[in-house]
Design brief:
single chain; mainly alpha; Four Helix Bundle (Hemerythrin (Met), subunit A)
């Protein structure tokens, strides 16, 4: 029986990893956070109505789901794509990912425009690290 040996530098085939999905999720978190704040500001008098509660609940559910997706995407990049050699050119890599993951958690349990923006900033920093490691310049483009 012939034996074939294979090896790879990461857990998935090249081209599978991309921080874009984390960006999309983080943008959704920020969008829902802004919508929740605007809804509260414009409907404070009728915040007990079924319509208000339904809309706010839907925004909160989407925000939490997308924050969780963002965290999952970031953790896969951190643990599967980035390797010890990448720390040489990105000494703050671990702290950046750790802080981004913590921001995902904060955005799930809070309604904070500041934390939502900080999450976007962290995902942008990760985007820049990722593409620098790959030796490519890929612009940071937001959908919103």
């Amino acid at each position: 029986m012939n034996r074939i040996e294979a090896s790879a530098h990461c857990d998935g085939p090249c081209g599978v990893y991309d921080p874009a999905s984390a960006r999309v999720a983080a943008e959704a978190v920020q969008s829902m956070t802004k919508k929740m704040i605007a809804l509260e500001e414009s409907h404070s008098a009728d915040s007990g109505t079924a319509s208000y509660i339904n809309t706010m609940s839907r925004y909160a559910a989407i925000k939490e789901e997308e924050a969780h997706k963002c965290k999952e995407e970031l953790l896969v990049l951190w643990t599967d794509f980035f390797k010890p050699i990448h720390l040489e050119s990105n000494p703050g890599l671990h702290d950046t990912f750790w802080q981004a993951a913590k921001l995902c958690s904060a955005c799930k349990v809070e309604v904070s425009a500041q934390h939502a923006q900080e999450l976007m900033d962290a995902v942008e920093a990760i985007h820049n690290m990722f593409w620098a490691v790959k030796g490519r310049e890929v612009p940071w483009i937001r959908a919103s």
